[in-house]
UniProtKB/TrEMBL annotation:
Signal peptide: none
Protein name: AraC family transcriptional regulator
Keyword line: DNA-binding, Transcription, Transcription regulation
SUPFAM superfamilies listed in its UniProt record: Homeodomain-like (SSF46689)
Organism per entry: Chryseobacterium pennipullorum
Length: 281
C-alpha cells in the first residue's frame, strides 16, 4: 500500500516523480499536489500554454487539469507533495482556508517564485515528513506524526500565501478576473457545456465581451480554449483507459462516435484510433 493510500500524503523526489508524472503523453494527476523546484528547470504544457518552473519556485497542480512534460534539465531537483483532499480537510488547521483556497485557485498552474530562505525551510520540513513516511521502523504514533508534520507544512505555505494573497488579488485586473472565472467554470462544466454563451451567462456578460477579453488576455479565442480542453480530456482517456472510442465520445458529451471522431481529427489530423495506436506497445 502506498503512503498516499495509507496516510493521505506521499512525497516524490526527482528520482521517482516521473512515476506519477508521465513524460511521453498527456496525463491528469490523480490527486492535488505541490511541486517545488530547488535547482534546474522543468517545462510543462497545461491546457493551452507552456509553463517553465525554475529554482526556488513552486506550483500547485490539480486533478482537473491535464499536463504534458515538454522538457526537464539535467540538474532538475524537486519535491512533489501529493495529498488526498479528504486528508487535508480532516486536519484542524486554524488559518483562513477560504483565502488560501482562493489564492490556490488563482495561482493554480502558475509558477510562484519565493525567497531561497523560505524554500530552504519548506524543503527541510518536506524532507523530514518524507523521512517519517519512508521509515520502516515501527512507530506507535506514526499516523499522528504524519498529520502534525503535514500540518506544519500547510502552515508554512499558508504563511507564504497570506503575504502574497493581498498583492495578487489587488493586482488582478477586471479582465484577468473574467478569464480566471471562465477557466474555473470551464474546468467544472466542459463535459456538458461547450458554448461560449453558457460561460458568458455565468458571469452576466455578453458573449462578445467574454470572447474579446479572453482573446486579449490569453491570445486565444474562448471557443479555441474550450476545444483544447475537450481535446486534452480525449487524449487522456484514449491513452490511459481501456474505454472504447464510442464510450469516450459519450463521456465527452458528443451525440455519437462519428461527431467525436470528426471533432478529434479536425484538431489533431489523426483519428482517435490512430492516436491511441501510438501508445500501444
Amino acid at each position: 500500500m502506498s503512503a498516499l493510500e495509507k496516510f493521505g500524503v506521499e512525497i516524490f523526489t526527482q528520482r521517482n516523480i516521473f512515476e506519477r508524472i508521465a513524460v511521453d503523453k498527456p496525463f491528469r494527476p490523480d490527486n492535488p499536489a505541490f511541486i517545488f523546484i530547488k535547482t534546474g528547470t522543468i517545462k510543462l504544457r497545461q491546457h493551452f500554454s507552456d509553463l517553465e518552473l525554475s529554482a526556488n519556485m513552486f506550483m500547485v497542480t490539480d486533478p482537473q487539469t491535464i499536463y504534458e512534460v515538454v522538457s526537464v534539465s539535467d540538474d532538475f531537483q524537486s519535491r512533489m507533495v501529493s495529498y488526498k483532499r479528504e486528508f487535508i480537510s480532516a486536519l484542524s488547521l486554524k488559518f483562513n482556508r477560504l483565502i488560501t483556497y482562493r489564492y490556490f485557485r488563482q495561482q493554480m498552474n502558475r509558477g510562484v517564485p519565493f525567497p531561497e530562505s523560505e524554500m530552504e525551510v519548506v524543503w527541510k520540513s518536506v524532507n523530514f515528513l518524507k523521512y517519517i513516511l519512508d521509515s520502516e521502523t515501527e512507530m506507535l504514533y506514526k499516523k499522528e506524526m504524519v498529520e502534525h508534520l503535514f500540518s506544519v507544512f500547510c502552515y508554512q505555505m499558508a504563511g507564504i500565501i497570506s503575504k502574497e494573497d493581498n498583492n495578487s488579488m489587488n493586482q488582478m485586473s477586471r479582465q484577468e478576473e473574467i478569464v480566471f472565472v471562465f477557466l474555473t467554470d470551464l474546468a467544472t462544466y466542459h463535459l456538458t457545456e461547450r458554448s461560449v454563451e453558457f460561460y458568458a451567462e455565468r458571469q452576466s456578460i455578453t458573449t462578445r465581451h467574454l470572447s474579446s477579453v479572453v482573446k486579449e488576455v490569453t491570445g486565444k479565442t474562448a471557443s479555441h480554449i474550450i476545444s483544447l480542453i475537450v481535446m486534452n480530456e480525449a487524449k487522456v482517456l484514449l491513452n490511459s483507459s481501456k474505454k472504447t472510442v464510442s464510450e469516450i465520445s459519450s463521456i465527452l458529451g458528443f451525440s455519437d462516435q462519428y461527431s467525436f471522431s470528426h471533432f478529434f481529427k479536425k484538431h489533431l489530423e489523426v483519428s482517435p484510433r490512430q492516436y491511441r495506436h501510438q501508445f500501444e506497445s
